[in-house]
Amino acid sequence: SIVLVLCISALPSFSQGRVVREDESGFAECNAFFAGRVPPDGFAEPFHVKICQHFNKEPRFATLYSTRDKIPLYSAFKYSKPAPGEEEQWLVEPQLDDPDSALREMVREADVAGTVANLGASQALSSDYVDSGYERGLLNPGLLHEGDFQVAAYTLTNAVPLSPSLSQSWHRDVARVVEQALAPHCSQTDALFLVAGAIPSSVRVKGRVSVPESLWLAACCDAPRGWSLGLLKTPSDENGLADLTVKELEKRLPAGANLFGSSCGGDTQSPEAAEAALQAVRQIHSGQRQGEQDSSLVRKVLGVIATPFVKLLELLVSVLVGLLKLVLYFLWLLTKRVAGAALDGVCSLWDGLVSYLKAIGTVLLSIPCDVGRVLVNICLGFLQILQDLTSLTYRILSIPVGFVLHLAAFPYRSLCAIPSVLRDAAAGIGGTVSLLLDATAALVHGFCYLAALVGRRVVPRVSSDE
């Protein structure tokens, strides 16, 4: 924040809005904007703050600001010279919200966001006017000034919420009256003191900023043959501008209000000069009203004449709009179809590309697996060959061992086999003898049987022959 303060202070053309201390007299150096250097009386409230508006290190006008209503109660200034409006650069006063702020000058709201404590607690901000239906109307219109005086007028401490039409009429009427009536009827232009103010109401923008119930302007020509007068504008009569004496105007203000007192010429005021200035104001206002009436009549006549052409033009416009809608709808459908086809093609291409990449990825991933599988098979083959060689070697080495073992066991097995062989031989011989006996017996039996059979055959035949 210190760097920000230094950067802002270094700007060559910067608006300073110094809050006047209580121990200072009036508005300090801005007392020069009041007749006789005496500010108005009757506006002493705890929530009223005096501001001496500066620009380029010079005082430009004075403002009494209400921190409760968050609008200026009045701004005192001098008429300099009218000029076209420049670019608006709205500023805020940091000291209103933070008396301890190191910023002793007005700054752009965006430049101090987050650096000033309670910003907006005692003054209006630009955000209060956003989407509110109200404009920032200047009590001290920038159109009455040129150069630095005009730039200094665009501060939120000099603005009140006004409807767009009321803001336009206020700036227009005040500029015309001051430029065409008041200034020409003051023998010394530098002696024309102006105080523009607003009377707060209970209506508030976004619950914060008071909407004025009326606007007023008090003028004092503090010169030989001087004069003073007042003007009042109400929202109910946006195009009207009531002319009053200063005393009559003070009755519309808070009780005890005294705008000029004896500071505006005193007994040296000229009633004739005041009347002349007042007549000039009324002439401007009546001429404005007449011009508005004439323009209204002309507008009515032109409206009657132009109505058929306007209707025909509206018909043609509606037909053209309809054709344009059809063309746009056709183009939209065509674009939609083309975009859909293109999108489908892109999607198909994308799907094919994804599938191709997926297949390539699968093949690439399978290559290491196949290589690993081949290597494993090769290793298994080598192991099998090694196993076979080992088995063959074992078998080759095991033949002599078996032969030696069998040869060493031959005597033992031969001796052990002799009893078995003798037993088997005896059994064989016994069997052979038994077989011979059985064969002999069977042969004898056979012969006996044969003899018996022959005998039975022969003996009966002999018997029969006998």
TrEMBL record:
The chain crosses the membrane at residues 315-334, 392-412, 432-454. The keyword Transmembrane helix applies. GO terms for molecular function: hydrolase activity; metal ion binding; nucleic acid binding. InterPro entries: DNA/RNA_non-sp_Endonuclease_sf (IPR044929), Endo_G_ENPP1-like_dom (IPR001604), ENDOD1 (IPR039015), ENPP1-3/EXOG-like_nuc-like (IPR020821), His-Me_finger_sf (IPR044925). The keyword Phosphoprotein does not apply. Residues 57-269 form the DNA/RNA non-specific endonuclease/pyrophosphatase/phosphodiesterase domain. Residues 58-262 form the ENPP1-3/EXOG-like endonuclease/phosphodiesterase domain. Residues 1-17 form the signal peptide. Keywords: Membrane, Signal, Transmembrane, Transmembrane helix. The gene is Endod1_1. This is ENDD1 protein.
